[in-house]
Structure prediction request, 149 residues.
Amino acid sequence: MKTETKYYGELEIEDKDILSFPNGLPGFLDERRFILQPFGEAFFILQSVDEPETAFIVTSPFLFFEKYSVDLPDHFVKQLRIRSEEDVSVWVIVSIQRPFPESTVNLRAPIIINRRERIGKQYIPDHSRYGLRHRLMSEKAASKVKEVK
Prediction:
């Protein structure tokens, strides 16, 4: 099937590439079918299949925050039909800023995908030690990026 995307124009996709979000995403409850598109080496685009303008830049939090962890409650694990840790991929939404080193990620509410079942949901805990706008790069790394022009 063909779908229009925000960043890559029209793409041919297969049904097996579609991720189902039965409850949509907060603020986008009607968007329930997405694909993950590579976007550079460390980023992906979570692209709605049905609405081209609905696309989120995401990354694995573990690439940038080695001590990041998320503990999913049993009811959430059951909703996504997760059987093992290998089923799970964790993504965080990136808010791109200019200059890029000012970009932030939402570590508080990761997107959890069961790769085996191809279903996902954003996990929004009642309490979290993580913030909604955590800088993607440390001050030290950001200063190095600024130096390279």
In short: The domain at 2-147 is CATH 2.30.290.10 (BH3618-like). The helical segments are 74-79, 139-147.
